Amino acid sequence: MNELVSAVPWLGKRNPMAARWLIIIIAIAAPIIAMQFGRSWVRILDFALLYMMLALGLNLVVGFAGLLDLGYIAFYAVGAYTFAFLASPHFDMHLPFWIVLPLGAAFAGMAGIMLGFPVLRLRGDYLAIVTLGFGEIIRIFMNNLNYPINITNGPQGINGLDSINLFGWDLARNLQVTEDISIHSLYLYYYFFLACVVGSIIFVQRLQISRVGRAWAAMRDDELAAKAIGINTRNMKLLAFSLGATFGGVAGCLFGAFQGFVSPESFSLMESIAVLTMVVFGGMGNIAGAIVGAFTLALLPEILRDVAVPLQQTLFGHVLLDPEVLRMLLLSLAMILMMLLRPSGLIPARARYAHPENLHRSAAE
Amino acid sequence: MIILMEARNVGKRFGGLQALTDVSLTIRKGEVYGLIGPNGAGKTTFFNVLTGSYTPDGGEFVFNGSELPSGKPHKIVGRGIARTFQNIRLFRDLTALENVMAGHHIRTKAGVWGILTQNRFTREEERLTTDRAYEMLKYVGIERFAHTVSKNLSYGDQRRLEIARALATEPQLLALDEPAAGMNATETAQLKVLIEQIRHDGVTVMLIEHDVKLVMGLCDRVAVLDFGRKIAEDVPAEVQRNEAVINAYLGGGKHAA
Question: For residues A342 and B7, what is the distance between their CA atoms, to the nearest angstrom?
Answer without folding.
Answer: 52
